[in-house]
Design brief:
Keywords: Coiled coil
Shape: rod-shaped
Structural class: alpha+beta
Distance between the termini: 69 Å
Strand content: 5-15%
Order of helices and strands: HHHHHEEEEEEEEEEEEEE
Number of domains: 2
Largest sheet: 9 strands, mixed
Number of strands: 14
Helix content: 55-70%
Pfam families: Peptidase_M23
Protein name: Peptidoglycan DD-metalloendopeptidase family protein
Number of helices: 5
GO molecular function: metalloendopeptidase activity
Length: 439
Amino acid sequence: MLAVSGATMVIASAPAFADERSDLVEQQQEHKREKERLQSELEGIDVSLQDAYLKLEETRGKIPEAEAAVASAQNELAAAVREAEANRALLDAAQGELAGIKDAIAENVANADATRKSLGELARATYRGDTMPSTMEMLVGSATAEDFANAYRAQAAVSRSHASSLNEFQQRAAQSKNREARQSAVEKQIQDLKNKAEALVETQTVKKNEADARKAELLELESSIVAQSEEFEAKKTDYQSSLQNIEAEGEKTAQRIAAIDEENRRKKEAAERAAREAAERARQRPGAPAPAPAQASASWIQPPVPAPVYVTSPWGMRVYPFGGTWMHNGVDLRSRCGEPQTAPADGVVSDVVPAAGNGTHGNQIFINHGVVGGNSYVTVTNHLSAFNVSRGQKVSKGQVIGWTGQTGRVTGCHVHFEVWQNGRVIDPMTLSSFTRRWS
């Protein structure tokens, strides 16, 4: 007879919640870093083209997660189907065993009835005294010793038969009791399996709906990619004009810097001339020491935002993701919208340029730091949301000059910071007071 196992099916559990949450947080951070990188790469391009490209890339970035969600939902559905199939196999086996038990009980009942009838007839015959002759009657009635032996053996056989019938009846009664108990247990097991089957049907329905929903989301993303790609291609006609604007704006900035450097050069020459004259006068006064030349401190300049400084896009040449190159004259630093930006060093605000008509740069501040260590320095800050200084104003290192924004042709709040040395732009992160941290 088939035995039905009560073991339940074990499905592999999902990763621990903490690990899963950590992975999701890391994915979010990675998406944020990637978005900042793309925003920096696209700086200066027409904003509508930036938006189209960023939306396209963001949608493309969602495809792997959507595919993983579909695969996960389908795996869960397959696991539910396998468990339901295993449950059906257990149910079929239990029902088969129950049928066998019922057949065995029916057969046992029939045999027990026959045995009970035989024992009843024996009891009635015994009561009447016509079952078997006594030993004395057999001895008297036997003509020979052989007749007596045969009669005795026959009587013994009948006695054994009666005893066997009684024993068989008792065994069948015990078997019936055991099988009835087993029948009750199997019937309960069958009911439990049926209940579980109903629950599994509901689970399968939920899992199938989830898988279908994830699949629909994936198909929707794929459709969005097609539509966004078409939108992006349509907007690329403005790309060349954006590149030309960037070059023109860069030239305008360089001209401003050149004018400031020329002013610094004149001031430097005047200062050197005054220093020479003072030295000559001092030389003519016996015993007077010559004035020591001014020395620049290595920490004369600092980042425009509080430490730690996170670089989202470094200084240097850029290659646009859809062709073309441009020089990124500064570094892009992570900074929240509205965060104060400060003067990197003492100086004079040489220009404050509003966003209107200033294309890529948006709200822009030029600070002339004069000549430091024999070199003329100018810093430029772009994309501010608002100004806190005016043209011609003297500023001190650390003084708030404005607030982080996203004015100009950019799509996210950040700091664009430039350092010009003798009319040439340099990488701010090479300065000793700047510590590079990558976002």
